[in-house]
Amino acid sequence: METDHVSVNQSEKTVVSVKEEDQQATSSPLLEIEISEIATQVNVEAERVIDVQDVNFYYGAKQALFRVSVPIHRNHVTAFIGPSGCGKSTFLRTLNRMNEFVEGTRIEGNAWFGGQNIYAPTVDVISLRQRIGMVFQRPNPFSSSIFENVAYGLRVLKFPRHAIHERVEESLRGAALWDEVKDRLHKSALGLSGGQQQRLCIARAVAPRPEVILMDEPCSALDPLATLRVEELINKLREEYTIVLVTHNMQQAARVSQYTGFFLQGKLVEWGLTVDVFTHPKQKETEDYISGRFG
Ligand code: ADP
Fold first, then answer.
1. Interatomic CA distance for residues 131 and 113, integer angstroms
2. Could you say which architecture CATH assigns to the domain 5-138+211-290?
3. Is 106 in the pocket of ligand 1 (CB under 6 A)?
4. How far, in Å, is the centroid of ligand 1 from the Cα of 119?
5. Which atom of ligand 1 is least distant from the CA of 82?
């Protein structure tokens, strides 16, 4: 009998096997964090879609990130955890240069994406944000119709009219919202529930077909049921997109991600397979954090 448990993801590419000893450790003894089957669905051959190297980030004189280096693997979910104020959101925003909206910020280091350094002055930031989209903590739909919320970005990108309709439907389906809204597409998006609004924001983010979607605590304003639906959606989106997720919720990281990074005081203290980080953390600070000793 096969002693290894082999999980195969939907793309049916190579997926690693999880050895028996790891299977036994699928519940972290530290905080009784349940590590899901999803966390084990790792394709070790997946390419690095983004390669972050030695990034320092400053708000004025205050340094918020210290020499952060981390790979982001294609078609996987990478979660970043850590106590409040440790730099998770700042880091996420460096990946599509959203921090540039804050005056007086400065960045050093490189983040390679498609052969280009994201921080190079020659990068077209609009097209960068089309390729690396973002979903925020609070659902932030525009006050226009459900349809227009998804169509807006496509119009900005000068999509032909006929293609817009098709893409809006496809995006709403992709965000697991189509069946709930198909009869009210031209009604205000503000009439949707919080969970539906967040899935609408995800539909808006996927509409230009980005390669990477950054999600900054996407469930923190949602109730448990809406959270579950968004987590299921994140797992499904992984088939087509690469997801980088910031969450203060360690259980969520263990449920939906394949890679986890732990930030503390602006430093990426640990990064690795989610299964390893939660069961055999290498650093004492990680162990202290996931066992609830601080944070
Ligand atoms: P986290 O997402 O882990 O809660 P943040 O990235 O929001 O952490 O914050 C990291 C550090 O940067 C904190 O000390 C925070 O006060 C500071 N910071 C965040 N945003 C700004 C800003 N716009 N201006 C100045 N400092 C900021």
1. 10
2. 3-Layer(aba) Sandwich (3.40)
3. no
4. 20
5. 3
Give the chain's end-to-end CA distance (angstroms, integer).
44
Q: What is the dihedral of CA 213, 214, 218, 220, to 10 degrees?
A: 160
Domain boundaries, the chain: 5-138+211-290
Q: How far apart are CA 9 and CA 17, in angstroms?
A: 12
**Which residues of the chain carry a pLDDT beneath 70?**
1-31, 295
SS3 (DSSP) at 230: helix
Residue 286 is encoded by which pair of tokens?
């990680």
pLDDT in tens, 193-238: 999 999 999 999 999 999 999 999 999 989 999 999 999 999 999 9
Q: 262-294 pLDDT, tens per residue?
A: 999 999 999 999 999 999 999 999 999 998 877
- pTM here? 0.89
Q: Could you tell me the strand order of the sheet in which 105-113 lies?
A: 62-73, 48-59, 105-113, 116-117
Alpha helix segments (H runs only) across 141-193: 146-156, 161-174, 178-181
90, 107, 215, 268: residue to mutate for ligand 1 pocket, most atoms within 8 A of CB: 90
Residue 59 CB–ligand 1 contact under 6 Å: yes
* 217 and 177 Cβ atoms separated by less than 8 Å: no
CA distances from 132 to 49, 55, 139 (A): 11, 18, 18
The answer to whether the CB of 86 is under 6 A from ligand 1 is: yes
pLDDT at 275: 96
19 CA → ligand 1 middle, Å: 39
